[in-house]
Amino acid sequence: MSIAPSAARHADLAPSPKAASLGPKPPRRPKRPPRNKTTLAPLTRTQMLARGALAMVAAVMLGFLVNLVGLSQLQHLISQQQLRGQFTEELASGTAPVSEGDYNGVLLPDGVPVGRIEIPAIGVSEIIVEGTGSGTLTAGPGHRRDTVLPGQAGVSVILARANAYGGSFGHIQELPPGETISVITGQGESIFKVRGVRYAGDPAPAPIASDQSRLVLVTARGAPYAPSGVVRVDAELVSKVQAPGARQTNYYTLPTAQRELGSDLSTLWALVFALQFLLLAVALALYSWRLVGGAKAWVVCAPVLLLAGILVADQITRLLPNLI
Asked: Can you give the pLDDT at residue 1?
């Protein structure tokens, strides 16, 4: 009996040496069913408008915070550096103002330097500018136009902010009686001694004689950026009294915007342009959101929205009380 065919069949079924060395094949994993991809429905017009309104509010609030806490301090520092250089040159050339007009008799515009005040006890070293409007006081302490310059016969009033834009007078209420204040103008240096601090309702000091000089420092009191009133520091001149310069402005013609806690509405037009820029930036962001998606739109439009918010916030700040 022949067994050759059966042996041949078994030989065909036997694994080859190569396959035996590789081992058995791993079992196949079952194919997973495809996931259902959910697509978000496009935003309705109402949802788009709501998102745009929220973007505007967020941009303004963030810009307001960045402007008041950070950029306003930097802006004040830059302004003071420029004013210090200008006033130093005018002192050297003898053209520093000694009245409400310049050496040519032209009325001084708001924001020009008229003096330098030094209060070592609270670390104040600032250039004083002419005018006390909200926009003017972003540069530094301002001299009220209806009063004489510091050191001249009469009463001189200096206003400055308590918190934003350097917060030059934020600590004047800490000045004790007898503390020294130095003011340099085009007529030289004047030395004052602090008489006291007074608040609303406190009695005002007695009027001075015609040959005496008094300096009054004024700023806001209360919570930061939320003034509840004003604080005043009275100081008497102890050095030589200077002759007063001519004044065109008096108490009755002084604009309300330049009085204590006054608001300047003359720059409303600038706020309108800033708001238009913000609206354009929001429209661009919403269009980009639908065109390229949220992530790419955020990268491109966030800096533009922040810039627009800062511009709007800066103009709103100028509408707030001038001593904040």
From this structure: 45
Start-to-end CA distance of the chain, whole Å, equals 119
- Which tens digits make up the pLDDT trace of 17-76? 555 555 566 667 666 666 655 555 666 778 767 877 787 777 777 777 777 777 889 999
The 10 Å CB-count burial string (b at 16+, else e) for 100-138 is bebeeeeebebbbbbbbbebeeeebebbbbbbbbbbbbb
Alpha-carbon dihedral sign for residues 200, 206, 208, 213: negative
Task: Give the residue among 88, 232, 224, 90 at the shortest CA–CA distance from 160.
Answer: 232
DSSP 321: -
271 contacts 316 by C-beta, under 8 angstroms: yes
Query: Residue 308 and residue 80: Cα distance in Å, rounded?
Result: 26
Q: At which residue do the structure tokens 């934003």 appear?
A: 164
Instruction: State how far the alpha carbon of 87 is from the alpha carbons of 105, 115, 150, 256, 259, in Å.
Output: 18, 8, 16, 28, 25
Nearest Cα neighbor of 142 from 267, 323, 320, 321 is 323
Q: Which domains does the chain have, with CATH numbers?
A: 48-324 (2.40.260.10)
